[in-house]
Structures are given as C-alpha cells and as structure tokens.
Automatic annotation (TrEMBL), chains A, B:
Gene3D superfamilies: P-loop containing nucleotide triphosphate hydrolases. This is Corrinoid adenosyltransferase. GO terms for cellular component: cytoplasm. Residues 1-28 are annotated as: Disordered. Belongs to the Cob(I)alamin adenosyltransferase family. Residues 12-33 form the Cob(I)alamin adenosyltransferase N-terminal domain. GO terms for biological process: cobalamin biosynthetic process; porphyrin-containing compound biosynthetic process. It comes from the Bacteria.
C-alpha cells in the first residue's frame, strides 16, 4: 500500500487557538439548532443549469428509504432514457412507486398536444400519490420543464403542491423554476454550472448521466 | 379521484410552430451528442453553500449501483450523524464499501491534531479504494472541508486524484472547493442557496437532512 498523505504537526499554541475557535463555533451552532423547532413536510426545488438536480432528488429519496419512508416518483419529461436509479430502486420493492409519464424530451416528441396530454396525466398521478398517506417523499422530476413550456397551469400546480398534507415532502426538479413555485417553496437550491465535461467532448456515460 | 389539471388546447398553427422549433432543436442536440466521443472516469466536485452536495453524490452512487457498478464512500468529517443513506445502501450488500473516517464536525471534536490524524487515515483509505479495480465510483464526502482546514496537503491530494485509473469516477463534496481541485476536475457544480427552511425555524428532519 502507498504511504498515507502527510499531515502537518500541530503545536500547542495552534491547538489551543483551534480549540477556542471551535468552542465558540459550537456555542453558535448549538444555539441555532435549539432555535429550530418546527417540523413540516417541505416543498423543495432543485433548479439551475448545473448537473445534480434530479440526482440530488434521488439522493433524498434514498435517504428517506433509509429512514423507513416510502417514496413516489413521477417523471414529467424523460422517458426510457434515465434508468440507472430506477434499476437501483428496484432493490426497495414496493417502497418506491415509480411513474414515468413523460414521452421523452420535447425535441424528440415534437408534438405539443401529446406533450400536454402526457403532462396532464402525470399531474393526475401526482394528486393520487399526494393523497396516499403511506408516502413520505414525492419526487416530481422535471416538473419545471412542463411548467416552463406551459404544459400545465402554473397557478393550479402551485396551489395543489402548497396544499399538500403536513408531513409530505415534495421535491420538484428542472431548470428555470417559476418564481411562483420558488415563492411557495421552503428550500430552493440553484445548481450552478462551473465546469462541464460535455464541453471537453466527453460523452454521457452509464452510471453518471443515466 | 380529483380532476386532472387543465391543459390548454393546441391549435394547428401553434402545433406546427412547436414542431418546427423542436425539429431544429433536435438537429442541434443530435449533432452535439455525435461530437462527444470521449469516455473517461470523471473527477466531479460538488461545492457551494446550498444543500444537495452530498445528496447528489449519493444519488450518483445509486445510479452507478443501478448500472451494476460497485461504489466506495469515504466520509471525512461527519461521524455518526448522517445515516439515512448509509442504512439504505445496506440493501446493496458488499456492492457499497462505506468508511466513516471523520470523528464528527470540527466544532464537536475541538481537537486539531485528532482531526488531522483522522483525515490522514481517511486519505490512506482513499488510496486503497482507488487501487481496487472492482470499484467504479468513489464518493469522498466533505473532503473539501478537510482541505480547507489544511488537514491534508492539497498538492498531494490533487495529484493523487488526478492520477486515478482511467475508468474510475471520483466525486468530491463540501463547501469552498480549492481552486487547484476545481482546475483538475472534469465536472464542477456549485450548489447555490436560494432559500433555506432553517431560516424559517424548521429543524433538521429524518429523511431530509440525515
């Protein structure tokens, strides 16, 4: 085996400074934790041009499964393409309810009426899963795309999600989240694109992109 | 069951405009896909102040598991705290190799020498897993924190990761990624904090934060 990485030695003064700083930090941290008392089902939005929006949603689903909860997934846009996580969720049997309602990327279907009908069917499925009290977390994958292209009525979608039952967490993914959805959300993360391997000619690879 | 969301009707002219636009988009998309031919193990960095860095890394791990790959995880900072995903990965048996090498948050240990020693042990484990050819993806959770606090030698870490075997994907998470690591990476996503429920007094909840 190779050598472990070297880690610089610590002198007493440095150790004491570090301890003092961390004691202060711990006090702040403990106070902040104590101030937070509310429990609620969150409306979470993952948006932005960077990679990781759906991936983080499925990571949350995994965490919820680890905590014993059931998870529902409705995919609004992607069709057969993205299957790595779907395969993996099979290990959890009926604790993951998965519905791929989209018919593929909008530039593949090229059929607006069909895309709209598919989105309406997908949202009907969302209402059904929202009413299912065995489900703790709902992933609405690429719903932002369906909203952006006006496949669905924005006001109707936002008010439906805002009226979720108290314990239900909902994660919405996709670029260009609508401001009305952001306003209704509890947690919004913008995935920023700093650097992408596609720009360097690297192709989509199994286990990474799909 | 409740009514499906209304979706506006499409007239012929609108449908034709949409089709033409999407045909053009598909041509661009197909050309871009055709231009990307390189396959390589990626060095991926999830950084930034927003939520989702580790979550997206575990989502990638899940995707890789769905594609039949084995996954290694080394946690540099967090100790016993974050266990939802760890529990869930148990469903995949020895296809996930998990090492929690950190001794908890830096403000909990308050011991610089101990934190540095733990980081050095963790990186020795990373070298071991990098050499294991059965592993397709390696998650180095919160390595950025260990680098930020100079628990490890930055140059040594970056050159070790840059020298990974060709097929190995490595994901590094944590705030404040070092520019040298970003320079060496293929894919860098900055998770931006748009809105966080902690600010509204909501506490950390099982299945969401841990």
């Amino acid at each position: 085996m190779s050598e472990p990485v070297s880690s610089p030695a610590v002198d007493d003064a440095e150790a004491a400074r570090h301890r003092a700083k961390m004691e202060k930090r711990k006090a702040v941290q403990d106070r902040e934790v104590a101030e937070k008392t509310i429990e609620k089902g969150l409306l979470i939005v993952h948006t932005g041009p960077g990679k990781g929006k759906s991936t983080a949603a499925f990571g949350l689903a995994l965490r919820m499964l680890g905590r014993g909860g059931r998870v529902g997934v409705v995919q609004f846009i992607k069709g057969a393409w993205q299957t790595g996580e779907q395969e993996a969720f099979a290990a959890f049997g009926d604790r993951v309810v998965w519905h791929t309602m989209g018919e593929g990327f909008t530039w593949e279907t090229q059929d607006l009426a069909r895309d709209r009908a598919a989105a309406a069917r997908a949202f009907a499925k969302v209402r059904e899963l929202m009413a299912d009290e065995t489900i703790a977390l709902l992933v609405l994958d690429e719903l932002n795309i369906a909203l952006r292209y006006e496949y669905l009525d924005l006001g109707e979608v936002v008010s439906t999600l805002a009226a979720r039952r108290p314990g239900l967490h909902v994660v919405v993914t996709g670029r260009n989240a609508k401001p009305e959805l952001v306003a209704a959300a509890d947690l919004v993360t913008e995935m920023g694109l700093v650097k992408h391997h596609f720009s360097a000619g690297v192709k989509a690879q199994a286990g990474i992109e799909f």
